[in-house]
């Protein structure tokens, strides 16, 4: 972890522990959009993570309440809240990891791309803050459409001269979490023991589960492949429809984001063999298996052998991804 400032150096806003002598060793993590449907349970899970010494909760609404609540948990992380744009810089200064679940969610009938107009601007503003205040932080982008918001983040960082592709990661862990669950159901296995690589992107046909590479090794009928591929690709819509206008996945997403953030922190700590799927800079953006380490993404692992079904899926995914990437890039450079 980077060296930690004394408590006095960081403005004590809400929910901070005035008598704390200083933060325990560990990493400093900020959640931007911390009062939202994902942000709140994610804040709870990150407060429980022993690798986190300082947790900054930023939102444009309700940050004080969420911070007061979370700060009463008797776990190690010191929690501080930050409300509104004037406090963004204080929220970000000194952070090792910034997680971004800020932005509007889908309602039934919408695609993730329908969120672009609102969320693109939100992600741009937050990334401008990151470029200024914590340019070396690892950034985990959750806000949709991920296929475009990660390219937006990259363009903002390029403009600021701080772009490091190793440190910018789109969070696609929920696709893997879902794939493990659904495959576990079909195979009658404990989902914790299943690992399905999911590559491509995070929307519709760009979500490409590699069912030929499931661990433990197994085989599926073509009906099972069609069922699983479709259920994994439409998992988000399944939740949006079930919530019937009250938003999209929040709890499973917070679980997935906390799992991914933990992997990033273990990589930063120097643990060996941390491999996760993530939407990273390649081709120019693509979700792949990546090895995480002290500098973020240390290696993009090969896709491995794809079967014919997966090769056809990959072509479809690439076509849609190219458009979503271009849309994000143009948003910043127009
Ligand atoms: P939500 O509306 O419940 O919460 C979003 C939060 O962002 C709110 O608290 C809001 O005040 C805050 N916010 C808005 N503008 C902000 C700004 N400029 N700065 C800081 N905070 C701001 O939504 P949610 O259900 O938490 O979803 C958030 C985003 O995550 C959506 O875009 C959703 O589509 C996306 N999402 C992504 C995945 C994924 O797998 N990557 C999964 C689920 C949801
Ligand atoms: C998900 O996959 O659940 C998220 O991307 C939210 C959504 O809009 O589906």
UniProtKB/TrEMBL annotation:
Keywords: Glyoxylate bypass, NAD, Oxidoreductase, Peroxisome, Tricarboxylic acid cycle. It comes from the Eukaryota. One of its GO terms (biological process) is glyoxylate cycle. This is Malate dehydrogenase. Pfam families: Ldh_1_C (PF02866), Ldh_1_N (PF00056). The keyword Ion transport does not apply. Belongs to the LDH/MDH superfamily. MDH type 1 family. It comes from Panicum virgatum (Blackwell switchgrass). GO terms for cellular component: chloroplast; peroxisome. Its main location: other. The active site is at 202 (proton acceptor). It is found in: Peroxisome. GO terms for molecular function: L-malate dehydrogenase (NAD+) activity. NAD(+) binds at residues 33-39, 59, 119, 142-144, 253. It catalyses: (S)-malate + NAD(+) = oxaloacetate + NADH + H(+). Its EC number is 1.1.1.37. Residues 172-331 form the Lactate/malate dehydrogenase C-terminal domain. Homodimer. Residues 28-170 form the Lactate/malate dehydrogenase N-terminal domain. Substrate binds at residues 106, 112, 144, 178. CDD domains: MDH_glyoxysomal_mitochondrial.
